[in-house]
Here is the input.
Amino acid sequence: MICLNKSCIDDWLIDKFDDLRMKLYSMHPDDLKAIWTCHECHRIFVFHSDVDDHKDSSGHKMINKMALIIPAEPLA
Ligand SMILES: [Zn+2]
Here is the structure.
């Protein structure tokens, strides 16, 4: 059952925002330079902390790291 009251949605948004803010404060040096894909379930992770969470919660150990190439200059 999903609650659609405004106060419930506000709580949910604050929750998500706190989650994101915590992630930004606890960034790994590889965050924003790499993404990770799980070899076993093919999920994609943007934050290293999510990889650790996934390893703990799923028991999946084979995570591939892929360099994220961001051009220094905007493409014309
Ligand atoms: Zn997995």
